[in-house]
User: Fold these one by one.
Assistant:
Number 1:
Amino acid sequence: MIVTIPIKTEKDIATPGPTVLVLGYFDGIHLGHQKLFEIAGKIAIEKNLSVALVTFNESPKLTLHQYSPEQLLHILNPDERERKLKRAGVEALYLMDFTSRVANMTAQEFVDTFVKEAKAETIVVGFDYSLGSDRKSAEDLKEIFDGEVVIVPAVEDEKGKISSTRIRQSIIEGDVKEAGQLLGAPLPSRGVVVHGNARGRTIGYPTANLVLLDRTYMPADGVYTVEIEIQRKIYRGMASVGKNVTFDGEEERFEVNIFDFDENIYGERVTVYWLDRIRDMVKFESVDELVHQLEHDEKIARG
């Protein structure tokens, strides 16, 4: 059971008992983050404490750096982030905005307010964590916090450190398979089904046209193997992202051909899980050539 509590100030924190407090932003809850929460959970069991997390609704970059639209994007939508935190063992999730007040706090001031109010006996942070306007490191926390500080080392694979930065880059490049491996589960995107031009139906490949519901990263233009969740049922399919260049389309489209499915689902909220990339978007010389390629894509997507 996870309790999510939006807070404006430290006074909104209402922790009933002592905690193992995890600190960080945690965009994605990837395998490295999951290791951190695993360690926090073990400490909580040993000390008979609960696991709490103080984190932010949006990236601190919005407050600390000159604005760019990418700063508003997330790897996971808020609901999926909360579900993954619940599975990771977080019992109390304190969510707040990273305001100028918070940004201007020193590490000691943050500890004396938010950490104190969360009744932390142990703090768990990643090796690269930093805190406060004075940018104190994870090791520095041991000097300013009157309790145990546990620093979790990097989790690595054959390519190096697993990080949110790597995952974002994988998504942007269309390597959704690697993004899913680093996340420990396929990357999800939520959309609502809307009316399109119904051209796919005329060539034997009807699609559900989707409008993205969240401020989340989308894979690079291309064709992908996906699973799509509709009314709690999972179907295999193939998705395309980008302009329909064969028909001289100018708009960016997000659509899914759902295998073995023939229902009207306009207005439904669905979740697409990205499994692997099939190919780039290509302009074909004829409809027949496009259909032939789609038949080949389907064989790949069906596995």
Number 2:
Amino acid sequence: MKSAPLRIVVAKPGLDGHDRGAKVVARALRDAGVEVIYTGLHQTPEQIVEAAIQEDADAVGLSVLSGAHMTQFAKVTALLRERDAADIVVFGGGIIPDEDRPELEKMGVATVFTPGATTEDIITWVRTHLGDTAPE
């Protein structure tokens, strides 16, 4: 088990201007003991990957509501591979049709949370797949 707290970059790629969900998830993860770096709105995949590398992140959580999820996830996962940072786990949430999930998995996206997922669902997934962040 990792001795330092998990570090997750939460990002809003592209032109999507709605970030309430990303902020709720970021706060819930922080309250669960995760170090969260929220990059803000209108981030490019390059900015997101750079932040993840600079912050020594364990994971990147992308919030995509604009319908551009296939493009945004593809760019982030490809850039992570190019930068020898494919060990940074990518997950996400937003308006993502079930039929797109297999292709996202092929890109290397670990999971996606769709509307209706609770913050507890996300925290449980993070603890299970990235490490236990529960306070001692």
Number 3:
Amino acid sequence: MRHHLIWVIVLLSCLFPHSTFADENSKIVLLATTTSTENSGLLDYILPYMEADTGYIVRTISAGTGKALRMGQAGDVDVILVHAEQSELAFVQAGHGVNRRRVMFNDFVVVGPADDPASIGYSSSLKAAFERIASSSALFVSRGDDSGTHQKELEIWRSIGKQPNENGYREVGQGMGKTLQIADELGAYTLTDRATWIFSEERLSMTIVFAGGQQLQNQYNVITINPERHKINYPGAMAVSDWITSEKGQRLIRSYRIKGQPLFYANAD
């Protein structure tokens, strides 16, 4: 029914070019998403298919999860694709978003200098790895931008009850790609999503020093902004949400690889 309505609007726009039906804004959907989906190249890969299938023009705004949620709360976007479970649940429970759906996942990894000065690679657990960083003279670079990755990092520090001293901890307020570059230049450790890491690793001298475990799983979800709170393009937002969780959208996410490596694992079903 929704697709029939789209074509009716297109037809009426042609017949009555000076009428309200000609408003091109009705065809634009504003999607706020994370820098990791942007930096990984996934959006460039799937958006042409999404737009062709839905009939909507999708304008993306790349931001950390915290900023994307604030944009949604203000009604500045129509739909968000984010990865910070507790913040997402609070967002929905407060009535700012509806139709929260799983889309895909990968994991976080700890990366650092190849010589691993804090001996992170010998750690028996994630907590032990971060305790080694906090107790050593090694430098840790934090995104410091309230992104999903930054929130995960802070969660880990809270779990061990300490953090590196101020001389060993740098908040840079940057997206994931830039944060990796800074950490590499400084010979520091950082936490990154695996997709951005795979996309960037050829340009870096650092390596993965710790990975694995349920605590490092990185789930992405799509949330439509509540149309009862804000005047948004609700049909367009739902078209994006339906497409990215559809069989075709999920298949395309699964097929996106770099050097044979999958960057995301689709799990809408």
